[in-house]
Specification:
With about 210 residues, the protein is an all-alpha fold. The chain has two domains: about 60 residues; about 80 residues. The longest helix is centred in the last third of the chain and has 35 residues. The protein is elongated. The N and C termini lie far apart (about 60 Å).
Length: about 210
């Protein structure tokens, strides 16, 4: 998981340092909007749980225990939520990017192209892994239930395993969206850009005439 945690900051850094011009196609901008809405819903659904874990929502029950002082784990949770909000803002910014053919055609940097390709591969593999995990959830649950019964424990509800697997698939798909939009945009701009050899040949033939 450490590799996956490092890929997104590297992608942010490469995107920040890039000086190329962007002409994101409309279909990719709509994909960014859909990912932003879906990821925002996922973050909103999980917000009450992490807010309560931070002690920002106090229980009124007299049986509730006094919360321990804040630790580094609490700070990590806050930083993770800020990262989620930053990612949603990035997706919305991609959606609001307006095509302007009058801008000079500056290609993307090699750093951004390499980092984006790596991010697409890794997050694509992560989504594929979670899809396989979701498909194998009934088998995994049967194995877990048999083991729990053998040791005299109550097995977890099947619905919880399914919800966790679906959440992993949706979250991974949202994280895959931004690198894919950048990668696909770079490819489309390269395909639309005239080949240098072809332009030189056309210029040479014009001079001979």
């Amino acid at each position: 998981m450490g590799i996956f945690s490092a890929i997104l900051p590297l992608f942010y850094l490469a995107l920040y340092r890039d000086e190329g011009t962007w002409q994101i196609p409309r279909r990719l901008r709509l994909l960014s909007l859909a990912a932003a809405v879906l990821f925002g819903m996922i973050v909103a659904i999980g917000a009450p749980a992490w807010i309560e874990s931070l002690g920002l929502i106090r229980s009124q029950s007299v049986l509730s225990q006094e919360r321990a002082p804040w630790s580094i784990n609490d700070l990590a949770q806050i930083m993770a939520q800020l990262s989620n909000f930053a990612y949603i803002l990035l997706l919305v910014t991609m959606y609001r990017q307006v095509e302007d053919e009058r801008q000079p055609d500056v290609p993307a940097s090699k750093l951004l192209a390499v980092v984006t390709k790596i991010a697409v591969i890794f997050y694509g593999l992560w989504v594929t892994f979670n899809l396989i995990r979701l498909a194998l959830t009934p088998y995994s649950y049967s194995q877990l239930r048999d083991y729990a019964l053998r040791i005299g424990r109550t097995p977890p509800p099947f619905q919880e395993l399914v919800k966790e697997a679906i959440r992993a698939v949706l979250t991974g798909s949202c994280m895959f969206a931004a690198p894919y939009v950048v990668w696909a945009t770079i490819r489309s701009q390269r395909a639309a850009r005239p080949c240098p050899d072809a332009s030189e040949e056309a210029q040479g033939s014009g001079e001979t005439e």
